Amino acid sequence: MSFFHGLTLEAFPANLTSSLAQPFMSYLSSALLLGSVAVQHILGNIAATPPASDLESFIQRQYPIAYDGVLCNIGSEGCQAQGSSPGVVIASPSREDPPYFYTWTRDSGLVFKSLVDIFVDKFDPALQDKIQQYVASSAQLQGVSNPSGELWNGEGLGEAKFNVDLTAFTGDWGRPQRDGPALRAIAIIGYAKWLVSNGHASTAEDVLWPVVQNDLAYVAQYWNQTGFDLWEEVYGSSFFTAASQHRALVEGASLARALGFQCKSCEAIAPHILCFMQSFWSPSAKHILANTSMTVSPPRLKKLRAAARAQGVTAEVIADAGRTQIEAGSLTVLGVGPAPKSLVDKITGHLKLL
């Protein structure tokens, strides 16, 4: 099942953005310009229509603000992302208290999924540059050895976050987080499908598919292993992770067919994940559980509990009562204190306090 390929920026053309953008120059023709005018005309009519509600009005006002804010957090030219590598999405410009000037695989995948959707809806050369930089940075990150593991067996792809210069973050963290590779694959697949539809299947196959294939291989190999959820607080099996993994394999199989071959592992494993997703349904609660299989305290909680007790601070792992979307009896919370906040922060590393 392991078929991970090592890719670096050197595996791409010398200037990825220029080389990938070059084939698209033909689209800057009268046909594209006419299409752009048509889109602008349609959007103009929509904007001229009075909003049906205050919510719709707010969304229309907020959209350009939110869009600019997202771009501001993407390196290396983003106004909040100075010092980060091209294509890197920073979680926050905050560098201390709390320190979130890092890049998360999950966050980056979600951001670029949205940006790819926007790009597919309306061609934008500047946005295309950022998407291609994201592909390049993703290829480089896949080969970075980190506390979760290496590329050769795929384990390193489950690392949650990296430094903004594309080096490994080696501090204590909730790892692995197995939704990241799936979300990254989904984002890049969206762009790859656009390439195929616009006559550039060779670029999708030669440049994008190797990156996507690594992430799909990770999903196929590790989908049934536990890890931390998207909030980085619960260790177990996550519905969000499973749903993301299922979508990645389904879309990966579709892209493979569009490129003229087959992703056998995608087609074989996707039905198993879909079946597994049914186990998150709680008949008694009549809703989907966010997390399951949390019957033991993860090593991280034990380590934090030991650190607290070494400082003379009372600490204990608390079993969840099962009144929310967390399975009853799950050991997911560490109670610490009473103690001064400065001491608690020293012990927990500024983890979220309830």
What does this structure look like?
It is built from 11 helices and 9 strands. The protein is mainly α and 354 residues long. Mean pLDDT is 84; it is low at 7-48. Helices cover 49% and strands 8% of the residues. A hairpin with a 6-residue loop joins strand 3 and strand 4 (235-238). Helix 6 (180-197) packs antiparallel against helix 7, helix 6 (180-197) packs parallel to helix 8 and helix 7 (201-222) packs antiparallel against helix 8. The protein has 2 domains: 9-49 and 94-291, Alpha/alpha barrel (Glycosyltransferase), CATH 1.50.10; 294-348, Bit1 (3-Layer(aba) Sandwich), CATH 3.40.1490. Strands 3-4-7 form a 3-stranded antiparallel β-sheet. A two-stranded antiparallel sheet has the order 1-2. It catalyses: Hydrolysis of terminal (1->4)-linked alpha-D-glucose residues successively from non-reducing ends of the chains with release of beta-D-glucose. This is glucan 1,4-alpha-glucosidase.
What labels would you give this structure?
single chain; 354 residues; mainly alpha; Glycosyltransferase; Bit1; 2 domains; three-stranded antiparallel β-sheet; two-stranded antiparallel sheet; 9 strands; 49% helix; 8% strand; globular; 6-hairpin_glycosidase_sf; Glucoamylase_active_site; glucan 1,4-alpha-glucosidase activity; glycosidase
